[in-house]
Amino acid sequence: MTAKRHLIHPRDEIMQTMDRIYRYRMTTTSGGNLSIRDEAGDIWISPARVDKGNLTRKDIVCVKADGTVDGLHPPSSEFPFHKAIYEARPDIRAIVHAHPVALVAFSICRQTPNTRLFHQAHSVCGQLGFAPYACPGSEQLGANIAATFAEGCDSVILENHGVVVGGESLARAFERFEAFEFAGKTLVKASQLGKVRFLDDAHLQQAADRGVDFDSYEPATATPKEQELRRQLCEFVRRGCRQRLLISTEGSFSARLDHESFLITPTQKDRELLNVEDLVLVSGNRREAGKLASRAARAHQAIYEKHPSVQAIVFAHPVNATAFSTTDSQFDVRTIPESYVFLRDVRRVPYGIQYRDDKQLAGYISESMPAAILENDGVIVTGRSVLDTFDRLEVLESTAEAVINAKAIGEVASMPDSVIDELKAAFNLT
Which residues are listed as membrane-spanning (predicted)? Predict the structure, then answer.
């Protein structure tokens, strides 16, 4: 098969990626820099001293292979370490450097987050490294970082500074950076709850071996209902990414079309950039031709088959709820009336059930218990519509964050049975 040609200009790709990093609050107005090394050996890089929240394509600088500079501004002051990394690792074609708070915290403590917290983070982040401190912008800093990358590292914590990641493309480097930051944030939150549980090699292999086998078919012309569901799914997946409820490399969202068919997000595509054509229609043992359904598609299918009232499902990895999934700390929704009304009691699913027995996973969900925590794998939420499911996901994550914050203040007070009974009667809860 012919490799897909990359058609986005480096100026546009750097501008768009920096906008996303800044919008996600993973860097500051003055901090961070991105670069791409093209086929000619020229390095395109974000400029020095220009507002990261307001970059234009004209602001991006090109440093030619011969050292000449083409641009309205000087290149980033960190250009020396970008150049040093490219020289040390010919396979790297793009670099992300930024100062996301969680990873800066690890850099201050001279630690590297353990990405075995979560299978996707471990897979995407690659080999981790730690580069000793040197003055920002200095040749010594470039030498320190390049030496760490030369050892085969892909994601590197900079002592008392921030993080640098590399990839074969800027899209890949961004995914790696986002997954690394997600792991760091989740680990910080989980450490506030108790002893953190990490995955061993056998656990990681379970996730890696998961596959989805569907026959291919050409669906009939899309009905208005299908078209509307495609629009809704794309809208809420995009919103979920921007609200940090989903990450670009992981998570799945689906909506039931009829008794045997549903739409689901694809695998190996950036969640925030999905469009209606990317979604995959699954019907029985068949999936839409030319597309790969999410690896969780069989789990979605089993839930739809067991629970006719479920109209939409999301597997997601919001930081606070995922923190609960990596510890044995109880996630108590009997703390806020809205949380109990929307979620009821949230069950905990032992690790690996979603990989080895999808029908068993469906048993952990019911109309009276529409959400569950998947050990070391985020959460699953169901609902009566795409909107209802997304709303419950928001409530779940907000509740998890509130409970973690409350634990830092004092003892968490759960609502007594009399209040729960009152809520059940007032909202007709079964």
Answer: none
- Provide the whole-model pTM: 0.94
Kindly state whether residues 172 and 225 are assigned to the same domain.
Answer: no
Cβ atoms 342, 395 nearer than 8 A: yes
Give me the domain span that covers residue 35. 10-191
List the beta bridge partners of residue 312. Answer: 255, 383
The span from the CA of 209 to the CA of 18, in Å, is 34
- What is the number of helices (H) and of strands (E) in the chain? 15, 17
Q: If you ran DSSP here, which 8-state letter would residue 89 be given?
A: -
d(C-alpha 146, C-alpha 127), whole Å: 14
User: Which domain CATH number covers 157?
Assistant: 3.40.225.10
pLDDT, tens digit (0-9, with 9 covering 90-100), for 245-287: 999 888 999 999 999 999 999 998 999 999 999 999 999 999 9
Which amino acid is present at 200?
D
Rounded CA separation 407/426 (Å): 29
How many CA atoms are closer than 13 Å to the CA of 235, on its beta-carbon side? Answer: 10
- Among 83, 95, 68, 69, residue whose Cα is nearest residue 14: 95
Q: Are 283 and 291 in contact (CB under 8 A)?
A: no
> Which of 157, 191, 225 is where one domain is finished?
191
| Closest to 392 (Cα-Cα) out of 284, 263, 245 | 245
